[in-house]
Specification:
five-stranded mixed sheet; alpha+beta; 632 residues; elongated; 58% helix; six-stranded antiparallel sheet
Length: 632
C-alpha cells in the first residue's frame, strides 16, 4: 500500500469531511505522478468514500436506535406525559436536523386541533395555534392517516390553506414541513411535525424515523390515558369502600335518631325537646325559632346560612318556624337528612298543638267580636274571659287591621270558583297566623271583613306604628305572602271601656285602605305615619265635605256629563303638570287634554294650579279615590 493510499485510512480514522478526500490525488498530480498511480488513488478514494458513507450510516442508525431506546425507557417509567412528549419532539428535531419540531393533538370536545409541544419555535402565535379539523398539512395527514411532506408550504395546493394557519406558519418562517400521524389503532389522534425555514428534501429514512417517534408518542398518550383511567377507577373503588365502611355507621345513627324522636313524641314532648335531642345527636346547639326566617325555604331542606344550618318547619306551604344548628359550618349529608327529619317531626308537633289551640283561638275571636259589636257587656265578665285567655285588657292596646295583598281577580285561565277558593284559603291562613301571633303576644284575633283584626297590648317602649310594622313583618313571614297592616291610635284600657274599640277598628281599616291606595302594600303603619292624610284618618270629621268643597264641581260635572275630568286631573298632577305626559298616560290627543284642563279651570277657578290650591286638590283626589275604594 502506497503512502498516498494510506492517507485515506487516516482520513477515515479521524472522520474527515468528504471534501478532504480529494487532497491526496491533488498532491499526487502536483508531484508528477503517472496515470496508473492516479487511477489507483482514485479507486482508493472511491473505496474510502463508500466506507465513510457506511460508517456515517451506522453512526446515524446507532444514534436513532439510541434515541428510540431512550424514548422506550421514558415510556417504561412514564410519570409526566408532557415531559415524555417534549423529549420525543426534541429528539426528533435533533436527529432529523430540522430547525423546528412540534406535535399537535385533536380536541374532540372543541372539534379542533391544538399545539401540544413545540421545539425551536419563536412565534407565540404559532405556539398557541388552534386549527379546525382537516385544515392545513396536518389536516391532510389526519384525513389520510399517511405521512405527507412539502418542500415549499405556501406553493403546495394539496391541502387546505387558511388565513389563520398561513399567518402562523409565515410568522414562524417555515418552508419545508414533514408530518406523520399519531395513531391509536385506526384512529388519528394528532400529528408529529418536523420543519425547516428553508427548502429541503426529507429522505425516506427520515420519514420512517419520525414515524417511529410518532408511534412512541401515541403509546405515551395511550399509556397516560390508561393510567388516568386506572387511577380514577382506584379512586372510585376507594370511595366505594369508604361508603361501605360508613354505611353501617349511617344505619346506626339513623336508628338512634328515629328512637330519640319517637321517644320525644310518645312522651308528649314539644319542639324544644326535639331541638334538645337533635343537639345531642349532631353534637351541637340546635334551636327552634319562629322569627328571622329569611334564610329558610318552604321545602324543608337543610341549607347552610353563614356558619349555621337551617331546616324550615312548614306544613301545607305555611312556614311555621325553623330548626337552626348554630356555629356548625360543616355538616355531612347524613346529618342534613337528620335535621330535615327532625324538622318534619317538629311540624307534626306544631300542627297537633295548633289543633289543640284552635278552640282557644275561636274563644279569643269570640271575645274580640263581643268587644267590637257589644261594648255594653259587663266589664267584670270581660275581664274574667280575658284572664282565662291570659290577656290583660286593663293595659293599653292597639287595634290592627290586616289583609293579604293579592290580585283582585284570578290570573288568566283561572275560574271564578278557583279564585274564590284561593281567597278563602288565604283568609284562613292569615287568621290562623294572626291567632297564633295573638296567643304568643297575650292578645286577641278574629276574622272580619275579608281580613283579620287583632287587639294587641302595647309595650312601654313601642308605638302603634312600631307594632303595625312588626305585625306586618311577622305575618308576611309566616304566610309567605305580603300582608298589609293598619293600626289605630292606642286604646287605654279596653276592659274598663270597650266602646272606643269599634272606632279604633274603623280607624285601622281606613289606615289599611290608605296604605294600599298609596302604593305601600305589604307594609305596616299607623295614622301618624301618613302625615296630613293620617290626621284626617285618625279623626275623619267632614272628609266628604272637604272633598265637595275642594273639587265637588268637577266630580258633579263627570257624573252629569259622563266625562273623565277627575281622572284627567289626577293624571295631570301625577305627570308633574305636563300636558304632553298627561296625554300619553290617558292615551288621548294633547288638544283633548288642553280642552279638559280649560274646563277644569272654569269649574275650580283661575288659581287652581297655585301651590296652595294644587296641594288641596291633590289631597282631595286621594281622599276621593280612597272613599271610592272603600265603597267598593
Amino acid at each position: 500500500m502506497s503512502h498516498d493510499q494510506a492517507s485515506y485510512l487516516e482520513l477515515l480514522a479521524r472522520g474527515a469531511d468528504a471534501e478532504a478526500y480529494d487532497r491526496p490525488a491533488l498532491l499526487a498530480r502536483a508531484s508528477g505522478a503517472g496515470a496508473e498511480a492516479l487511477a489507483s488513488l482514485e479507486h482508493a478514494k472511491q473505496l474510502a468514500l463508500r466506507v465513510r458513507a457506511e460508517l456515517e450510516g451506522r453512526r446515524r442508525r446507532e444514534a436513532e436506535l439510541s434515541a428510540l431506546f431512550e424514548t422506550a425507557h421514558d415510556l417504561a417509567g412514564l410519570r409526566d406525559l408532557d415531559a415524555v412528549l417534549r423529549a420525543i419532539v426534541q429528539r426528533a428535531r435533533s436527529l432529523l436536523g430540522t430547525e423546528v419540531a412540534y406535535l399537535s393533538l385533536n380536541d374532540p370536545a372543541a372539534g379542533d386541533t391544538y399545539m401540544r409541544v413545540t421545539e425551536g419555535s419563536v412565534s407565540a402565535r404559532f405556539q398557541q395555534l388552534r386549527l379546525g379539523m382537516g385544515e392545513g398539512l396536518g389536516g391532510l395527514v389526519a384525513q389520510t392517516a399517511r405521512p405527507y411532506v412539502t418542500d415549499s408550504y405556501f406553493d403546495d395546493a394539496r391541502f387546505e390553506h387558511t388565513r389563520t394557519i398561513d399567518t402562523a406558519v409565515s410568522d414562524e418562517g417555515l418552508v419545508a414541513i414533514l408530518g406523520v400521524p399519531l395513531m391509536l389503532g385506526s384512529q388519528v389522534i394528532g400529528v408529529l411535525f418536523a420543519a425547516d425555514r428553508r427548502a429541503r428534501v426529507f429522505e425516506r429514512e427520515q420519514v420512517a424515523l419520525l414515524g417511529s417517534f410518532a408511534a412512541h408518542a401515541a403509546v405515551a398518550i395511550d399509556t397516560a390515558n390508561l393510567l388516568a383511567e386506572t387511577r380514577s377507577a382506584l379512586a372510585e373503588l376507594e370511595r366505594a369502600n369508604e361508603i361501605i365502611r360508613d354505611h353501617s355507621g349511617v344505619i346506626e345513627r339513623a336508628s338512634e335518631v328515629h328512637d330519640r324522636l319517637t321517644e320525644v313524641v310518645l312522651r308528649g314532648g314539644g319542639v324544644h325537646d326535639v331541638a334538645a335531642a337533635l343537639s345531642e345527636v349532631l353534637d351541637g346547639t340546635v334551636e327552634f325559632t319562629d322569627t328571622d326566617l329569611e334564610a329558610t325555604g318552604a321545602d324543608g331542606r337543610a341549607v347552610r346560612h353563614g356558619q349555621d344550618w337551617v331546616a324550615a318547619v312548614s306544613a301545607g306551604g305555611e312556614l311555621l318556624g325553623a330548626l337552626v344548628l348554630r356555629n356548625h359550618p360543616e355538616l355531612d349529608p347524613v346529618d342534613q337528612r337528620t335535621m330535615e327529619r327532625a324538622a318534619m317531626v317538629t311540624s307534626l308537633l306544631l300542627l297537633a298543638r295548633r289543633s289543640a289551640h284552635d278552640a282557644e283561638q275561636r274563644v279569643r275571636g269570640e271575645l274580640l267580636d263581643d268587644l267590637l259589636d257589644a261594648p255594653d257587656r259587663d266589664p267584670r265578665l270581660l275581664r274574667e274571659r280575658a284572664a282565662r285567655l291570659q290577656a290583660d285588657l286593663d293595659a293599653p292596646h292597639v287595634v290592627l287591621a290586616a289583609r293579604i295583598d293579592g290580585p283582585d281577580s284570578g290570573t288568566s285561565g283561572t275560574s271564578d270558583r278557583e279564585t274564590a277558593d284561593r281567597r278563602s284559603a288565604d283568609r284562613q291562613r292569615l287568621w290562623s297566623a294572626a291567632s297564633h301571633l295573638a296567643a304568643t303576644r297575650s292578645g286577641l284575633a278574629a276574622a272580619r271583613d275579608g281580613g283579620t283584626v287583632l287587639l294587641l297590648p302595647l309595650g312601654p317602649d313601642d308605638s302603634a306604628a312600631d307594632l303595625a310594622r312588626q305585625t306586618s313583618r311577622q305575618l308576611s313571614g309566616t304566610v309567605r305572602e305580603s300582608v298589609t297592616v293598619g293600626a289605630s291610635a292606642p286604646v287605654p284600657a279596653p276592659a274598663g271601656d270597650p266602646s272606643p274599640i269599634a272606632g279604633a277598628y274603623a280607624q285601622a281599616r281606613r289606615c289599611l285602605d290608605a296604605l294600599r291606595l298609596l302604593g305601600r302594600s305589604g307594609q305596616g303603619a299607623a295614622a301618624q305615619d301618613l302625615g296630613f292624610l293620617g290626621l284626617l284618618l285618625a279623626d275623619p270629621g267632614d272628609i266628604d265635605g272637604f272633598v265637595r268643597r275642594t273639587m265637588g264641581e268637577v266630580v258633579d260635572y263627570d257624573r252629569r256629563r259622563g266625562t273623565d275630568l277627575v281622572r284627567t286631573l289626577d293624571a295631570y298632577f301625577a305627570s308633574g303638570m305636563s300636558p304632553a305626559r298627561t296625554k300619553d298616560d290617558l292615551h288621548v290627543h294633547v288638544n283633548t287634554v288642553a280642552q279638559r284642563l280649560e274646563r277644569i279651570g272654569r269649574l275650580l277657578g283661575p288659581d287652581w294650579q297655585s301651590p296652595a290650591r294644587s296641594l288641596e286638590i291633590q289631597l282631595a283626589l286621594r281622599l276621593h279615590a280612597m272613599s271610592a275604594a272603600v265603597a267598593h
